[in-house]
Amino acid sequence: MSDGNIDLKAEARARAYSMPLDDINPTDIELWRTETMWPYFERLRKEDPVHLHPAEHHEDGAFWSVTKYNDIMAVDTNHEAFSSEPSITIFDPKEDFTLPMFIAMDPPKHDVQRKTVSPIVSPHNLQILEPLIRQRIQNTLDALPINEPFDWVDRVSIELTTQMLATLFDFPWEDRRKLTRWSDVATAGPESGLFSSDDPEIVEAERKMELFECVDYFSRLWAERIAQPPKGDLISMLAHGEATKDMDRMEYLGNLILLIVGGNDTTRNSMTGSVWALNQNPDQYDKLRANPELVPSMVSETIRWQTPLAHMRRTATRDVELGGKTIKKGDKVIMWYASGNRDEDVIENPNAYIIDRERPRQHLSFGFGIHRCVGNRLAELQLKILWEEILARFPTIKVVEEPKRVPSAFVKGYESMTVIIPSKN
Ligand code: HEM
């Protein structure tokens, strides 16, 4: 199987280098669905690494694309000049439906809310969680069909990340797929097929309705937890936390969505991405089988190569210089992590998937600075255990057709991927 459609990729390369720079639109979801965005980013990195996309080309107005590793790092680590408010996606919040969440807040409020939930992923808590994560991964893998095609995304990636979230929230086990649904509904666009129509107004109305169901459900759990002494799950932490106990309903919902999406889509797509990357690079799969001690560096390489969140947005709080350009106060700045992770000036042979790189954790996928991913060690742990258990039981996992990608310039992932696990002999 080839890496996608070769003609499509050649055509994208020709287009990327022939169109005027101002016509390049990295937010075009078609580029992500077909994975043809790479040559556009390559050109931006080479010719205009801090590039202003003019307003008339984009329904969300003008925005800057920052595409090189060190420039992205400079933005991400300067939260005074580059604010996370009002939003970390290119869209501004809808006036009648704002969801405050700490990823889209600046200090001091961000810091105290983040501190409230961080203990869930402390090294000590991860040690406690490890046997449970391993047990659940073992059970899930042992239930997979052999010699029969199935969807890896649904049976493994979604199932395991949903189980993890249910554990972190101490959420009713039998209802755990509701978490998957809410996560998908919170981020999906009109073209996702998740809603009854692709009319944007209907989509927004349905999205709201489902998210209100989500907050109603979690409000019942909050009432339960607040009536009990503090425990180690996320709802109890939020309900008893000094910085979060007085949140209103929308802020509770916002932070829930943050934790659900943060822990769900990202790890899910790394799990699928690891199987896809190893299938695309059979020499690396052989290397991994021969050297299982490479699992941790393979995990980091997968997270770089996949870049499950393609970008984060900031908004300039004052006029600021970056890469020889003046970004004006109020301008939208998009840090394209996916592009920075392929920056040939920082990462050697960046388009290649190499599981034993010298510095495998050198990537932008978790961000940097005060918003650096809270769950990064948990995500790595889940993936490490998954691969230890895969190597212990399956000779290989064979991807049988090109995966279906998520049509999004934000969540870089897979909707489905059919695989077969052959029997051992
Ligand atoms: C923040 C990526 C897994 C919870 C972030 C950010 C990125 C990211 C890019 C923003 C960083 C920035 O703005 O500088 C990822 C990836 C993951 C992953 C690639 C998996 C491979 C998780 C997990 C959890 C989680 C498992 C929860 C259990 C969060 C939270 C934030 C965050 C709460 C907000 C942090 C803040 O604003 O201070 N993540 N994440 N993430 N992530 Fe993750």
UniProtKB/TrEMBL annotation:
Its keywords, alphabetically, are:
Heme, Iron, Metal-binding, Monooxygenase, Oxidoreductase
UniProt xrefs under InterPro entries: Cyt_P450, Cyt_P450_B, Cyt_P450_CS, Cyt_P450_sf
Q: Spell out the SUPFAM superfamilies in the cross-references.
A: Cytochrome P450
Presence of keyword Oxidoreductase: yes
- Signal peptide limits: none
Heme: is it a keyword of this entry?
A: yes
What is a single Pfam family found in this protein's UniProt entry?
p450
**What family is reported?**
Belongs to the cytochrome P450 family.
What's the protein name? Cytochrome P450
Q: Which organism is it from?
A: Phenylobacterium ferrooxidans
Supply the source organism's classification.
Bacteria, Pseudomonadati, Pseudomonadota, Alphaproteobacteria, Caulobacterales
